[in-house]
Design brief:
Strand content: 15-25%
Largest sheet: 10 strands, mixed
Distance between the termini: 41 Å
CATH topology of the largest domain: Aldehyde Dehydrogenase, Chain A, domain 1
Number of helices: 27
CATH architecture of the largest domain: 3-Layer(aba) Sandwich
Length: 779
């Protein structure tokens, strides 16, 4: 035994393991688990072993859910949905409070079960996972109480399928189940194949408190079970996992009408500037990449350090890695546990080997690994190029990459160089620099001088390949609700399509009857040199330009060049929209004649003028918020425009339908590439003239006429289009959702409706995405 003097010299300390007998006894007593379906645990079926990653021992056996069992769970949830939705918010709140209280009483049990199931250190499950899981349930009990008042007129979606990742299983369960139940939905939950035990223990809590049968159903299994659940008749899928599976889900759900929230891979950048508190930054990086073991999507980072301090920072970081304690996750002194599964560790080693082969240099801490378990020594990859697979792909283990930068602009460029966009942290003592960089990072969350902070009240979710949709807070609950179903209005038939060469000179047709595309603020002939004859009741009205793939390309480029529009204040955008409304009003008679000549209602003009005024009125009313999360932190939510937004219009209401989508989109700061109604494309050319005379900057609105679905397909596949709205046929909606899977862009396919009755605030909700910013306050 070391002397006191030796202990004070080495600052070493002995083991302090947490007792796990109660949890092991619970597992041994049950041995084999079935599913929770319809308020009862089913007998075990075909089972698979669940192993402790730290030891390799078998903890229990769980049933691999079949398609029939998934179907039974969904049927139970759908049967329970009307009764659960009919309860008052107060009654649902009482059930959630009961779950939260019981979970809080069993906190010690669950944090040990999470350690055995995931291999994470008990410090993490005790201080991070369990408090946050409990917080989620309590927070959403409050939302259940307030839901009817805060979201009047909205109704539950119905039945929600929740598919969990292997990391943080109980926390992710609470984050998905609590808001769904609070909003009045029923749930079918599928935990990860490797870590299902917390969900099964949670099922026992629900049975103990008497939660109504079918409100929550839990089906365990592998990827085939998850695929069966995704294909089942549910109303929403919320999925956390890999980008590849997210793409598959987007394609598989295309055209089904299922709502979809995807929280996908992270590769979150950490930016350390020269004036940062390096010791604090190192502790933040260690927490992100190693203490959390890189197994949370918001961790496992790419570290970017200012060149002026890169050498010092790297040396201190490597010294800190040597001090980490790796071993028994139940030991309260352990910093690093095991990787969650053998398959995950194999993937990690293969990816690191590939990264080293492509030029990166791996430095690992000289820490002995236990003889058993899926442990991995903490390491740092340096000299990795931006295209190195270890930089672009999720490692999901205690390995991070480190690269230096010279200027803030280069730091932002490196941080945004991958398609991931979940979260990032910025470390600097210069608040102006921090805020400037935070605004430029293409991520859903930015932490300033902190990292990996999450709260039930704060919206959390990604951009680009990190998915779309938000969990947490008001926005997360809103995603569990919908407007009541309405009967779609019939779509107007598309006109006969008669392509013809564009006239060589304006004299070939009267000038007001020969339209052009509108790209970058200028009238342009289509790249293909084609037009098409617009006719009504056998009478030729004029020639409309026939846009194609190259014209879409040019329009998207023009929209990107107009990025200054997104930086203007809402007040300035409002002035432009008011001016546009006034100019449109001056040409009322002309537009009424244009609509009447193709059999459309001239009253669309007056409705469009009113809509333009309303868009102007709301342009500076798009509000963010400061929300209550953790003490000594300001948590800001800021609605931001998507950037370049694609819009495909219905044939009904050719003027109003175009304006009802374009004007709210630009009021929110987006730049748009719009496909006008084929039924009357000439009115869109007249609308372009109004844009020209109303100080709308070139490139903010681009109009490409032609076959709607063909052009929408091009927009759906375009990587530089951030989101796409499609108002058209169900087949067309399915097509754009399917084609958008590769780029994982958000889509909105509103049912065909009378745009005069459309609530513009709903459209504005679709026109923005939330960025959550965490700022230290009061330290």
């Amino acid at each position: 035994m070391p002397s006191v003097k030796e202990i004070l010299t080495t600052m070493d300390y002995g083991p302090a393991p947490e007792a796990s007998g109660e949890v092991r006894g619970w597992l041994q007593a049950r041995g084999r688990f079935g599913h929770l379906i319809g308020g009862a645990m089913t007998p075990p079926g075909t089972v698979v072993a669940v192993q402790n990653p730290a030891t390799g021992e078998t903890l229990a056996e769980v049933t691999r859910g079949s398609e029939a069992e998934v179907g039974a769970a969904v049927a139970a949830a759908r049967a329970a949905a009307p009764g659960w939705a009919a309860l008052s918010g107060h009654e649902r709140a009482k059930w959630l409070y009961a779950i939260a209280r019981t979970l809080q009483k069993r906190e010690a049990f669950f944090r040990i079960l999470e350690v055995l199931d995931t291999g994470k250190p008990i410090r993490e499950t005790r201080d991070f996972d369990l408090p946050l899981a409990i917080r989620h349930v309590y927070h959403h009990a409050g939302w259940a109480e307030l839901c009817a008042d805060e979201f009047p007129g909205l109704v539950p979606l119905g039945t929600v399928a929740a598919i969990l990742p292997a990391q943080a299983p109980l926390l992710m369960l609470a984050a998905k189940v609590a808001p769904a139940l609070a909003a009045g939905n029923t749930v079918v939950l599928k935990p990860a194949e490797a870590t299902p035990l917390s969900a099964l223990a949670f099922a026992e809590i629900c049975l103990e408190i008497g939660l109504p049968a079918g409100v929550l159903n839990i089906v365990t299994g592998d990827g085939a079970t998850g695929a069966a659940l995704a294909a089942s008749p549910v109303d929403k899928i919320t999925f956390t996992g890999t980008t590849e599976v997210g793409r598959t889900l987007r394609a598989a759900t295309a055209g089904t009408g299922k709502a979809l929230t995807l929280e996908l891979g992270g590769k979150s950048p950490v930016l350390v500037f020269a004036d940062a508190d390096l010791d604090a930054a190192i502790e933040g990086v260690v927490a992100a990449a190693w203490t959390h073991q890189g197994q949370i999507c918001a961790t496992g980072p790419r570290i970017f350090v200012a060149e002026a301090v890169a050498e010092t920072f790297t040396a201190r970081l490597l010294t800190r890695l040597q001090k980490l304690r790796l071993g028994d996750p139940l030991d309260k002194c352990t910093d690093l546990g095991a990787v969650v599964s053998p398959a995950r560790r194999t993937h990690l080693h293969a990816l690191v080997a590939k990264g080293v082969a492509e030029g990166a240099r791996l430095i690992t801490a000289d820490i002995p690994l236990p003889a058993r378990g899926t442990f991995c020594a903490p390491g740092l990859l340096i000299d990795a190029s931006p295209a190195n697979p270890c930089v672009t792909e999720d490692l999901f283990g205690p390995i991070a990459t480190l690269t230096s930068f010279r200027t803030p602009a280069e730091a932002v460029e490196l941080a945004n160089s991958t398609r991931s966009g979940l979260a990032a942290s910025v470390w600097t003592e210069n608040l102006t620099l921090a805020q400037d960089v935070a605004a430029k990072l293409a991520t859903g969350t930015v932490w300033i001088n902190c990292h990996a902070l999450i709260d039930a009240a704060a919206p959390f979710g990604g951009r680009r390949d990190s998915g779309f949709g938000r969990s947490g807070g008001r926005e997360g609950l809103r995603a569990q609700l919908r407007h009541p179903a309405t009967t779609p209005v019939p779509e107007a038939p598309a006109p006969d399509f008669n392509p013809a060469p564009c006239p060589e000179a304006a004299a070939a047709q009267p000038i007001d009857r020969t339209a052009k595309l509108y790209i970058g603020g200028a009238q342009k002939r289509p790249e293909g040199g084609q037009s098409w004859r617009v006719t009504h009741q056998g009478r030729e009205i004029g020639l409309a330009p026939l846009g194609g793939r190259k014209d879409i390309r040019n329009a998207v480029e023009a929209a990107h060049r107009a990025a200054g529009w997104s930086k203007l204040t809402g007040h300035v955008r409002a002035q432009v929209l008011y001016f546009l409304a006034e100019n449109l009003a001056l040409r009322t008679a002309e537009f009424e004649t244009r609509l009447a000549e193709t059999g459309h209602d001239p009253s669309e003009v007056g409705q469009t003028i009113r809509l333009a005024f309303r868009a102007a009125a709301l342009a500076d009313k798009i509000e963010g918020a400061v929300i209550q999360t953790k003490s000594q932190l300001l948590t800001l939510t800021r609605p931001e425009p998507w950037g370049v937004l694609g819009i495909a219009c219905a044939n009904r209401q050719p003027l109003l339908g175009l304006a009802a989508l374009v004007l709210p989109a630009i009021a929110a700061g987006n730049r748009v590439v719009a496909i006008p109604a084929m039924a009357q494309p000439l009115v869109a050319a007249d609308f372009a003239q109004v844009l020209d005379t109303s100080d709308v900057p070139g490139g903010v609105v681009n109009l490409i006429s032609g076959p709607r679905d063909d052009l929408a397909k091009v927009l759906a596949g375009h990587d530089d289009v951030a989101a796409l709205w499609y108002a058209g046929s169900p087949d067309g909606a399915a097509m754009v959702e399917r084609e958008s899977a590769a780029s994982l862009k958000a889509t909105w396919c509103p049912t065909l409706r009378d745009w005069a009755a459309q609530e513009m605030r709903e459209t504005l909700e679709q026109a923005t995405q939330t960025k959550t910013i965490w700022v230290p306050y009061g330290f």
